[in-house]
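Example 3.2
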Amino acid sequence: MDEAAAQAPTSAPGSVPAIVVMGVAGCGKSAVGIGLAAALGVTFIEGDRLHPPENVARMASGEPLTDQLREGWLNAIGERIAASVEQGKGVVAACSALKRSYRDRLSGFCPEIVFLYLEIDPGTARQRVGSRKGHFMPASLVDSQFAILEPPAADERASKLNATRPVGELVAAAVRLIRRS
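Structure, written as tokens:
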């Protein structure tokens, strides 16, 4: 199935959306996140820009991040999301959020976060990451992301989309999911 809601996101009518576009490297988090934020008229947060320099250097050298190294980064994203929502602004953030504990950490900053999981296969992710120019994440780290990936469970506020679809289709499908909630 191309489009599936693990648990239909629920929010009060007129509430400010807080959405995290998640998945492994190469799934299209940034492209879909930018398009979704534009379609909804909300702020976009690029999670990769919030990594501390040490994390970027580690990944650029081919070393995966540990849970401990991700904590500060997740906090920075969560704080930005919460600040936008507190100001009455909707927000879409791009963040891998690979483990449930990472999603729980983000939800601690804003319980109404909805996760949009862009599901992709390892081969396509490796190919996409390998063809990117100017990004710190090497294709050699894609497998480490799949090794720790915990797709959202049925009890999480998350929807899943097939990330092999074109970005425009994914954005349109995401807008439909968000507006249905």
